[in-house]
Design a protein that fits this description.
133 residues, mainly alpha, 5 helices, disordered C terminus
């Protein structure tokens, strides 16, 4: 699947609300799984690079969505996600330049933590009437 196709699929799921959160969480977990598998085979440099590139593409798509005018997230959350994305960009470049499976641990943990937050069901009391359940 090309990056354009991934981006289109990601963008179309944004219109689905909570289902989009689940899709994003699954994408982050899949990227984390692939990086984890690459760690298990340290001699396979191509798998290592492919796993990092997949994660990088995913985060590039997230960055694109965050800067979109249609994204309704509060500015502070957008800024936090962009800061995290910049960190991921820099960390990924470093991991590609100096292959070391231990460098993937940070990226794997970030993906898993963000996915966990996306999969969490917000308290009904915390939702405003316009957000629904």
């Amino acid at each position: 699947m090309s990056q354009s196709q991934i981006s289109q699929a990601y963008g179309s799921t944004q219109k689905l609300g909570a289902e989009a959160r689940q899709t994003e969480a699954r994408a982050l977990l899949e990227a984390a799984r692939r990086m984890s598998e690459a760690q298990d085979r340290p001699d396979d440099r191509e798998e290592y690079r492919a796993a990092l590139r997949l994660n990088w593409r995913l985060w590039t798509i997230i960055q694109s969505d965050i800067v979109s005018d249609e994204n309704a997230l509060p500015a502070e959350i957008k800024a936090n996600i962009m800061s995290l994305s910049v960190f991921i960009d820099k960390h990924t470049v470093g991991a590609l330049a100096g292959p070391d499976v231990a460098k993937m641990n940070v990226l794997i943990e970030i993906n898993r933590n963000i996915a966990s937050g996306l999969m969490a069901t917000p308290d009904e009391e915390a939702l405003s009437p316009s957000q629904g359940v």
